[in-house]
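User: Please run a holo structure prediction.
Assistant: Happy to. Please share the sequence and the ligand.
User: Here you go; the ligand is flavin-adenine dinucleotide.
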Amino acid sequence: MDHNLPAATDPHAEIRAEVRKLCARFPGEYWRGLDAVRGYPTEFVRALTEAGFLGALIPEEFGGSGLGLSAAAAILEEVQAQGCNGAACHAQMYIMGTILRHGSAAQKAAYLPGIADGTLRLQAFGVTEPTSGTDTTALRTTAVRQGDKWVVNGQKIWTSRAEHSDLMLLLARTTPREQVAKKTEGLSTFIVDMRTAKGLTIRPIRTMMNHNSCEVFFDNMEVPLENLVGTEGRGFRYILDGMNAERLLIAAECIGDAKWFTERSVAYAKERVLFGRPIGQNQGVQFPIARAYAQMRAAEAIVSRGLEKFEAGLPCGEEANMGKMLAAEASWAAGEACIQTHGGFGFAEEYDIERKFRETRLYQVAPISTNLILSYLGEHVLGMPRSY
Ligand SMILES: Cc1cc2nc3c(=O)[nH]c(=O)nc-3n(C[C@H](O)[C@H](O)[C@H](O)COP(=O)(O)OP(=O)(O)OC[C@H]3O[C@@H](n4cnc5c(N)ncnc54)[C@H](O)[C@@H]3O)c2cc1C
C-alpha cells in the first residue's frame, strides 16, 4: 500500500525511493537490537550522511544539496514510514539553520561544509533547562565575557545526541533578566566545540525509548569570543526563527510514523482470521484505523501548506504549529489502533509496534508540547488574551 502521491505528481518521488532503498538495509532487527541496549544507530546515520540526505538543507556553495524544506520533510517522513528512527540525526539537518541565517561568513565557511559531509556533527541543541522548561527566557545558564573568551556556567537537560555530536548550539543568558527591558532580550547563541571544551560534563538519561538524551553541565566552560552567533542578546529571536522549520520536519516524521502504523494495521487486519473471517471485516477493528488515517491525511494537508508557505518565504507559524500538533496526535492515534488491532502481538517486541509506539509518543511533548501550541493558536492566531 502506498500512501504517497502518484510518482508523476510527487516532486520528491525520487528522493523517497532512494530513502526507501537505504532504509531497507536497516530492518526491524537492527532497531530492536539498539533499543535493547539504548545504542546509537551509527551505521544508519553514516548511510544517511553518505547519501547526502542530512546535508539536504545546506546550500550547494557550502557542500550541501541546497534542497528546500519540503524535500527534507520527504526524507524524514520516509525514514519513519519505513520503520526507522530519524530522531538519532534529524537535528543535523536543521540546527545549522541558525548558523546559515545568522552566522558570520567565517562561521559559515568554518562549519557548514563539515556539517554537510558529516565530518562535523552539529546535532546537540542546548535550550531546555530543568528549572525553566518551556519558560525558555527564565533559563539560568549564563555566559559571561572575560577578556578573550566567554565563560559558561549552568545546566541543560534533554540535550539529545550530546554524546554523538561534535558541536552544540547553546542558548545562554549574557545579560541578567533584571537588566533587560524584555525577558526575551539578553540571551545569546553560541557554537560550543564539545570535543575540546573543558568544564563540560554529559550524563545520559535513560528514557522509555532509545533517544540518547542527556543532561549537560557547564562548569566555567570557556568558549572563544568568535563562537558567538550573530549579535549578543538576540539569541532567543534566532532560536525562534528556526522553530517553524523544526516543527514542520517533526510533523513530517509523525506523518511517516502514522503511515507505518496504518500499513501494519491494515495488513494484519486482512490476514488475521478469527470466527471464520478476517478481523478487519469487523467495523470495530476497521474504524479506529480509518479514523487515524483521516487524521493523518488532514495533518499532512496542513503540513504541506506550511511547507509551501515556508518555501515561498511567507509566515507559516500557524501551519507549522497546527501541523506539528495534528501530526503528533495522528501518529499516536495510528499507533493506538495498531496495538489494538494486533491484540497481544502488538506488545511483542519482534513486531516493532511497541517500539514505534514508545518513540512516537514523544512528539506530543517535544520539541514543543501540545498545550503550548494551543496557546500560540489562541493568542497569536485567534487574538485571545495572552495567558502567560
Ligand atoms: C526525549 C526528549 C528529547 C528532547 N530533546 C531536546 C533537545 O535536544 N534540546 C532541548 O533543548 N530540549 C529537548 N527536549 C526538551 C523538550 O523540548 C521539553 O521537554 C518540552 O519543551 C517541554 O518542556 P518540559 O519538559 O520542561 O515541561 P514543562 O515546561 O515543565 O511543562 C510540563 C507540562 O506543563 C504544560 N505547561 C507548561 N506551561 C503551560 C502553560 N502556560 N499553559 C498550559 N500548559 C502548560 C506543558 O504543556 C507540559 O505538558 C527534549 C525532551 C525530551 C523528553
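The mean pLDDT is 97.
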